[in-house]
Amino acid sequence: MLVVETISKIRRAYFQEKKIKEICREFRVSRNTVRKVIRSGITELTYELTVQPFPKIGPWTDELDEMLAANARKAKRDRLTLIRIFEELRARGYDGGYDAVRRYAASWSKEERSASAAAYVPLTFDPGEAYQFDWSHEIVLIDGVTTTVKVAYVRLCHSRMLFVRAYPRETQEMVFDAHDKAFSFFDGTCTRGIYDNMKTAVDTIFVGRDRAYNRRFQQMCGHYLVDPVACTPASGWEKGQVEN
After folding, report:
1. Matching Gene3D superfamilies, A to Z (predicted)?
2. Domain chopping of the chain, boundaries
3. In whole angstroms, what is the distance from residue 95 CA to residue 117 CA?
4. Please, which pLDDT band fits residue 168 given cuts at 50, 70 and 90?
5. Which of 47, 67, 71, 101 sits a CA distance of 20 to 30 A from 15?
6. Stretch 135-162: mean pLDDT, rounded?
């Protein structure tokens, strides 16, 4: 593609009455290029790529998508490096270079992050649809001693009814007990529970809404027939009722 400086020289040479043949020979460009510059009156040529060609990696994009998605779902310590993914793709018959795989993987990751950023939890709810769960740390006076307690909050999203219970720690047993006491207080459960990514519930955070939940936490949700939903990291507004 011609740079602005070359275009300027072509225009000056033409309007100084040099022949097109001389201009082509002097600047090593084709006659069609010189005619395009002169007839259009442009001072800059831009080129927009509408379709990205993948001559080598094109037939392998579907397979590479599956490999990248499977790798993203693994725990962080178990994930393959990009060079390992490239080597595995080569073992399957891919004969292209590593740079093409690296560029494609970067594009894939960017699209996945965009999809994750666009996800949200709705803030309007039907009766019995969902509740929100969260913890807070409070400083209290017990028998004349100042101490910190962990307070569990369970709030029904439709009616905004709130259940609060304090505990000495924030262990998984306390999480289970808070749910048991809250559901007894509400005299029922909801179909969904909205949580942050607390360690007592979530083992691994994947792209988007995918989570690897703790086995015992899943058992509790299965017992109460609750479908757990985790918020996007650092997005407290997705369970704004209980946060407030």
Report:
1. Ribonuclease H-like superfamily/Ribonuclease H
2. 4-40, 58-118, 130-243
3. 35
4. very high
5. 47
6. 91
DSSP string, the chain: ---HHHHHHHHHHHHTT--HHHHHHHHT--HHHHHHHHHH--S------SS---TTTGGGHHHHHHHHHHHHHS-GGGPPPHHHHHHHHHHTT--S-HHHHHHHHHHHHHHHHHHHHH----S---TTSEEEEEEEEEEEEETTEEEEEEEEEEEETTT--EEEEEES---HHHHHHHHHHHHHHHTS--SEEEE---TTTEEEE-STT-EEE-HHHHHHHHHHT-EEEEPPTT-GGGGHHHH-
Structure tokens at 231: 């918020």
Q: What digits encode the pLDDT tens for the residues 85-128? A: 999 988 988 888 888 888 888 888 888 777 655 555 556 788 99
130-243: CATH, from 3.30.1300.30, 3.30.420.10, 3.40.630.30, 3.30.70.120: 3.30.420.10
CA–CA gap between residue 54 and residue 78 (Å, rounded): 29
Residue 152 has pLDDT above 80, yes or no: yes
